[in-house]
Amino acid sequence: xxxxxxxxxxxxxxxxxxxxxxxxxxxxxxxxxxxxxxxxxxxxxxxxxxxxxxxxxxxxxxxxxxxxxxxxxxxxxxxxxxxxxxxxxxxxxxxxxxxxxxxxxxxxxxxxxxxxxxxxxxxxxxxxxxxxxxxxxxxxxxxxxxxxxxxxxxxxxxxxxxxxxxxxxxxxxxxxxxxxxxxxxxxxxxxxxxxxxxxxxxxxxxxxxxxxxxxxxxxxxxxxxxxxxxxxxxxxxxxxx
Length: 241
Ligand code: URA
Hints:
By secondary structure, the protein is an alpha+beta fold. It folds into three domains: 4-57, RNA-binding S4 domain (Structural Genomics Hypothetical 15.5 Kd Protein In mrcA-pckA Intergenic Region, Chain A, Roll), CATH 3.10.290.10; 65-128 and 214-237, Pseudouridine synthase I, catalytic domain, N-terminal subdomain (Alpha-Beta Plaits); 134-211, Alpha-Beta Plaits (2-Layer Sandwich). It has helices at residues 6-12, 18-26, 119-126, 146-154, 191-198, 230-237, and strands spanning 3-5, 30-32, 35-36, 43-45, 51-53, 56-57, 65-70, 100-101, 110-116, 134-141, 157-159, 162-163, 168-173, 177-184, 202-211, 214-215, 225-227. Strands 7, 8, 9, 10, 13, 14, 15, 16 and 17 form a nine-stranded mixed sheet that branches. A four-stranded antiparallel sheet has the order 3-2-5-6. The protein has a two-stranded antiparallel ribbon with strand order 1-4. A hairpin with a 2-residue loop joins strand 11 and strand 12 (162-163). Helix 1 (6-12) packs across helix 2. The model has no long low-confidence stretch (mean pLDDT 95). The structure holds uracil. Uracil binds at residues 105-106, 109, 190-193, 206.
């Protein structure tokens, strides 16, 4: 049995701010188990009681999990003074759920970005202790060679007190512009770019394709998103205990 205030349930479900949902409730638009309830503080058992708002059944979800294919040009934050953020890409009602990105991709990086309002899940996935693998497809100027694979495997000192964990580098094509897959186990600022700089190359294009066992769904166009399926949620759970 999980009881929650009626105004909180409605605000979390995208019906507006606390103030707006209070007036919605007071207008008599909300029925709890077939009775009009006008008290915003009324406690509802969300597992047992039936909620109707303006005649429509409300299926309450406390947490939301979205997979976005982040386009370049957007900041991985909830607000920025100068730039558009990934939250600006959300339509209603998702832009009302208080979602935030789990970790950061650089402004020019594309690909898999998880958005949620589940702070605990985000905290666990980002915890350095969990060493969640993140795989990127990168195009790099300069020829990536076998020795770079060894260097990545050994871990690269990026700061006086930080050396990366062993990372996997998979060369897809080596040339003036090389194509690679790289898997890292932390999420330091500009980490992949700095690792390539350490071996004398620069990243021209970067796209995250997986996080843990969660893979970017190829059917999501750049700038679009979808809710995670139960199977996709399952692929994250091993990191959540
Ligand atoms: N490493 C980078 O350099 N940039 C990203 O956006 C992600 C990982």
